[in-house]
Here is the input.
Amino acid sequence: MSEKIQLSGVPETMLQTIYARAKETKNRGAIRDQKAVEIIEKLDYDFSLADKDGAMHNGVISRTIVLDKLVTEYLRKAPDAVVINIACGLDTRCYRTKNYSHWYNLDLPETIAVREKLLPESGKISQIAMSAMEDWSSLVEAGSKPVLVIIEGLTMYLDLASVQQIFHIISRNFQKATVLVETMSPFVVKNVKEKSIEGSHAKFTWGVKDGKEIEKLLPEFRSVEDHSLVEGMEVFMPIYKLIGKIPAARNISNKILVLERK
Here is the structure.
């Protein structure tokens, strides 16, 4: 029996991203996300816009590749870490990655309501139905353990004050926090539109150039390194091994910034 999903705005974008991962798994195979395939097969939703949006698809797959690598490397060094996945949508990384002490998926109540239908979780995985800008920290049990925070596909829909609020919650409550945050360049925010995202009535609103720039905006954090999503594109489109050598190409792409609490 199919599940009919009705969402709009930013929460609806989670359907586009999980569809991209499922489609990639079944076709080209640059990633393997069988859980995404299982979910998509349960949904009654028109994915025709997502099917036409190659840029969105490749962007989702490239960031999945980059983030999966960074999360795996972090957890290999800190297997007792607590992971907080902010704006999780229907992300399935908690199933692809096993080496953690506890994993919290956080998103808006309407999003978690959908997630609970499709991905009921227990044990080492918990759901938090709150805005990322509310103080959700009391629902996370981390103690003295290191904390890894993932913020994927969110900041480009916010304003600076909201981004700063999220990071303030993290810095105030977790002493050993590392954040992997996806950001968009200001140029792309102003000049680029993705067909499937526009169809959901979500809008790009904020961007930042790189880790050094965001460090100035978030004084409680230090920038460790930047990873252009070109690194993910290289895995399934070899031409990007050449394109990635062009600084302008790397800079215009979305980035995963690695930040640590000071």
